[in-house]
Amino acid sequence: MGNKGLQKFGLAAGIALILVWCLLPVVWIISLSFKSSASITNGSPGFFPRDFAGWENYQAVWDNEQFRRAIFNSIGISLIATVLSVILATLAAYAIARLEFRGKKLVLSVALAIAMFPVVSLVGPLFDMWRAVGLYDTWLGLIIPYMSFTLPLAIWTLSAFFREIPWELEQAAQVDGATSWQAFRKVIVPLAAPGVFTAAILTFFFAWNDFVFGISLTSTEAARPIPASLSFFVGSDPFNRPVSLIAAGAVIATIPIVIIVLLFQRKIVAGLTSGAVKG
Amino acid sequence: MTTATVGRRRREGAQLSERARAEDSLGRKLVAPAVVLMLLVTAFPIVRALYLSLFNYSLTAPDDRAFVGIANYVTALTDPLFWRATAVTVGIMIITVAVELVVGFVFAMVMHRVIFARGIVRTSILIPYGIITVISGFAWQFAFSSTNGFINGWLPGVDDGFNWFGQFGSAVSAIMISEIWKTTPFMSLLLLAGLAQVSEDMLEAAKVDGATWWQRLYKVILPNMRAAIMVAVLFRALDAYRIFDNIFVMTAGAVNTESISFLTYRQVIEQFQLGMGSALSVLLFLSVLLVAFILVKAFKVDLAQARQG
Amino acid sequence: MSHARKRPGTRFAVGVASAAVLAGTLAACGTDTDSTALTWYIGPDGAPAKEKIAEACSTDDYTIQTELLPTGATDQRTQLARRLAADDPSMDLIDIDPVFVPEFASAGWLLDIPDEYAERAVDDDVLDGPASSVKWEDEVVAFPQWANTQVLWYRPSLAEKAGLSEADMEKVTWDQVIDAAADNGGTVGVQANKYEGYMVWINALIQGAGGSIVEDTEAGTDAKVTIDSDAGKQAAAVIAKLAASPAAQPDLSISNEGTSLGQMFPQGGAGEFMVNWTFAYANYRDTVGAEGGPPDEATFKDDFAWARYPRTNPETESTPPIGGFDIGIGAFTDEPDAALKAAGCLTGTDAQVTLALEAGLMPARTSAYQDPKLVEAFPPDLLALYQDSIDDAGLRPASAYYSKISGAVQSTWHAPDTVDPDKTPEESATFLEDVLEGKSLL
Q1: What ipTM, to 2 d.p.?
Q2: What is the least distance, in Å, from the CA of A63 to any CA of chain C?
């Protein structure tokens, strides 16, 4: 009995630890976003704001055109990169999971090598190439590298999912009189959709998070994404970082992530672990 | 491997062989776009970096471009700055991965056992994973700030005016804390997947045999999770070796906190030294390969196999 | 399955094409079809005032739009240089920190300014400091926009306690300032983070002792390194003295122009001596009664004063730092004529008066200092001090490799508490030579 009680207590403590670990910095940045800019300039240590600024910082960030455009860029670029990357990855993963072909192992090795690639070592040559072909500071100039670097993750996740699909069902449906297109649409698509969806979420996270390409391959609001924009954020006082404004911007930039996590936590966990489980 | 497949197919008859050929061709067509795109953005630039690294070439003085052979590599490899950055990077990699492994394992154990509040735990653990690294860097930088943060006030024995970013030790600790906070969830999820592979029957049997909790951990749980641990460590280690975002945001390389990625970035993007920067890019690439090689050898694990399942 | 077989190529192409179209339309939607749009890349100092000026200088032929640059001089240079290296035709008008003018000009990124405009850009009305900052190899390559300089801001009450009269303050030395603050519970505000501001301080200290960091800068990487000199040692001695003194502010090693502002009127404490740019006046004027500002109007009037930049050497007149901004014209602009006309207006007397009144950024033109509105807004002795400082200012090395020189100096002289008069100048000379020759990484 005592042992059981101890275990329960340990578990509760563990849960508390996880929650504090994960949420404390998030609560902190939210709290920071409610400190007034005047108090930030003069220094206002402490976890909670001494004078609550209300929505002032959010209003200021949202009124900042650079920030709005960066949000727009990030959403646009990340979504396009995600869609294109998942399409290509689905094709490749289908081939890897279902077909025998020469060079399959090579494809997986290439994908693996790219997942480990030091991104920074590419920005120099990419910058040089992009400025030559006019892709510098454009959406496409970021979409292409985002696709390349999310493909490995998407391919692995998807091929792990596709291997689980009972493809015999397709034949069974055809035997039952469905055309091959119907069989594909009615049987395979519903089975494959969760995997594709998961791959899409993980891809989106990568693109949303990227910083190295974001700062190296852009220089104006034409394409600058959120992380880069936050790091260059300039307030009214040129000599002090507008800490509370950055915090408000950070909170806004985190909202999409929180929504996705709240809606799809199960799928994300499955996607992250699918590749490793079988090891 | 290919010949074996073809041989097997051939024995199964001409019709199958033709199907196999069609399958082969379809398979290659389906992977082609992904492979081409991946190589376009990696292989081609790295080859170009290899070429540029042989020149003294600055964007601000394009006319002075001159072939210098391996001089850039010699300069880099004999420069204390390069080795200091490498040492900092390796140090950060080892410490962060070790801490993440321990904390991540504890988290995985908790998540494995937890019955109530499962959704809440899973949701909160995904937030650090999904949050932008730059934002994590800002959150921790501001938290450690002596003017607007709270950590000086919370930590006993630390002066309220203590400047965490004023000297190497405390600055690099702050960087590592941000890195660890953000990536431990990823580690714990991979370990959780491994934990799920450990059979309950075996644990039950060990319990019946009178094994203590520690014995069960060391004799049953950990050996059965070996592959998951290795994959997690390998991926995190290579990721940590490329650390950039947190350093950029939190110290911008001040007080010697520069990593090898940051050094390379500065040469290329801030100083426009495309020649020297390319040489550093190539060295960074090679050192990542070396780290991967050492880890794979040390773990004796076939990674492609592990991911492929 | 036949669908799937054909798809990959076409889908990819369609996707890329639509992405390209989307990106294209986005880029295009900023431009106005009626008149030419010029883009002016502005530094964040006084951005709202600059937007007003841009509007005032827009004509029926062209509209000037602004695009904000990052804060630090180094970041600004990086952003600008990357675009210019990409031959960006949208770089019409560019705010450039004067120290990077030689680099940009020698890289061929700045449009050569035709004589008729050049003559007006640096006519007799322009103060000497800014006028020389826009020249490279005897050609005018930019328009002086506004001029900055540093003076010593202080609390007379603190100076009095230390026995320094107003007359003493006019030729006060760094030694005196540090001792005065240390002995009377005050502090000394400087800029000593590892960034351009630290270079400004080091350069002013060395020039104040009659020396220089490098000479013969037009020789590029073959410039003569002169930092290891008696002047270099005197400069290092000042930094070492402050770092070891109780007058040093706790965040000395990461201090910038903003960090020491709050130490002038602290809650308890005697205040500070602070070297800082001209914006400090407007800063305190506008924060009377607010946290970090003077407690009341009387304190601002009676217990806040200014003097010329401190001397390194009691016998030698100081050489105050100079800053500010120039406006250059991108070499790849599609609209050189409009940009030249616009640059003339953006750097004209009216524009400079607006900048001074609204943002505290002081003019580069003498005529602007005589503008009645300016005379009314600033104390006359302050305006006179600014003009003298700007005229006598010591420029930082004018080299196409300035960023390397500055970076090498910063890296050997940072952190301030590691500076040793016997070692630092020598070490930095060796390192600077190696960096210029490409033998050391920076």
Answers
A1: 0.90
A2: 14
